[in-house]
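Worked example 3. Consider a protein that binds pyridoxal-5'-phosphate.
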Amino acid sequence: MQSINRRQWLKAAGLATGAVTLWNNNLYGLNNIKPYYDEGDVLFPYSDQNTIRLSANENPYGPSSYVREKMVSAFDRACRYPFSEVPELTRRIAEKEGVSPEHVLITVGSTEGLKITALAYLQKGGELVSPDPTFEAMPNYAEACGAFVHRVPVNDELGIDLEAIEKRCTNDTKMVFICNPNNPTGTIIPADEMTHFCTRMAQRTTVFSDEAYFDYIDIKNYPSMINLVKNDLNVIVARTFSKVYGLAGLRIGYLVARPDIIKRLEKFQVDNPNMLALAAAHAAMDEKKFYEFSLQKNIEAKSMINNTLDSFGLRHTRSQTNFVFFKTGMDISVFSGKMMQHKIRVGRAFKPLTDWCRISTGTTEEMESVVTALKQSFLNPSSVKSTH
Ligand SMILES: Cc1ncc(COP(=O)(O)O)c(C=O)c1O
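Given these inputs, the predicted complex is written out as structure tokens:
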């Protein structure tokens, strides 16, 4: 082992020991933090090939054959620690985003980025302001850390209400969380409004911009909040390889923020992503073809769902993501029961919008089953009984 690697290993071991000590002392809310996943997805494991899983906004086409090849080659290095591979991917991501490597932190999925941010910023006494409904990981982690969470309802169009969010910020607000495009609503904040809001709020607090679905945005030149990081603002941006790159199972994502913020956050990481995930992320960034293919397939799948919903006059948002959010007019427990009769698993309930459904895009074949299932559900709504 080279001396640099030994040092890094000792650092990682020290951090892990530190984390265990914090855990034992019930500090940092670690005792309350639960892994983030939809419990329903655990009940329907992916190995159940009979179920069409449209509940977790995954990309069914990934990983591409090129990425698979690169992962297979990476097996030769799987007996090695990944320390030396992390800086190279960090450099690659920094180059892509137009920042320095010191602005980038590779994380185990963007979920780890959300978790370590809550641990670093949202201890007892702090406040988080968040839209509602939204991707719940950050509000949940914040509460587990003992912070108070202001949940600000989305507006009548199910868009994030920036004005109301700003009004809820106080001197105790440690962070504003914005998921844009938002999960589960699929809506996006107009570009100028988002930039102005984040610029203003970053003078008062830290802004966390969750951009998990950024690649799916179909508005030309829509700005990433990484632009504000480049201007040294108090903004943290999360990105992931789980969506358009189709690598959700490999758990790799990253944060972009000012170097002082990255330094503060990295202390809370316990370990590095694994060798295969690093190789896959590298390869995925090399390959434009699969990226474009995924985007195109997603557009086609969304229009198949939207056209069917439109033919029944069902309300849906104009989703800028890889899922559709629509009003079923019945409780989600009843509607998901109907879809399960076609072996289709849709998203969970998103309170208070419990008569809406979030359905992820799947393969063309899967979408054909969805169209059939939707037609049967809405042509004759009373014909199928709820399984709940
Ligand atoms: C808005 C948002 N952020 C983050 C994540 C977590 O993604 P990952 O941890 O796979 O990067 C998801 C997953 O669905 C999401 O919807």
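Take a moment to read the result before moving on. The CA atoms of residues 89 and 282 lie 6 Å apart. The pocket of pyridoxal-5'-phosphate is lined by residues 57, 109-111, 135, 179, 183, 210, 212, 240, 242, 248, 253 (CB under 6 Å).
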